[in-house]
Amino acid sequence: MRAVQIRTFGEPGTVLELAELPEPTAPAAGQVLIGVLGIVCGALLGFALARLIGAYIENVQLPGVMPLFGSVAVILVATVLASMLPAMRAARIEITKALRSE
Question: Which long-range contacts (CB under 8 A, 24 or more apart) does 46-55 make?
């Protein structure tokens, strides 16, 4: 796969170069497992923190299960969009024009 690569600091015209890189691979099972564990641990720790705060402050209503799952879903969608939108924009750029413009 050919890609524009930045190897040093400096002006775009001097640091951009066209490089031959290996094709990207799908995430390994361990990488997906780490992501899922992060989501589960974050939800559990958030619930535990809400219970801990509720023990010290009166009249605190603990969130139910649905708001926790809803917040996890919103964060997951935001993460996917935050990584996909710049990648799609970068994929539309013509490499030769980007290198010649600087």
Answer: 46/71
Q: Is the pLDDT of residue 83 over 80?
A: yes
Amino acid, single-letter form, for residue 40: V
Domain parsing of the chain, residue ranges: 25-93
Query: Does this model's pTM top 0.85?
Result: no
- Mean pLDDT, residues 88-98 taken together: 76
- HSE-CB at 42 with a 13 A cutoff on CA atoms is 13
Say how many Å lie between the first and final Cα of the chain, rounded.
23
Distance CA 76, CA 12 (A): 33
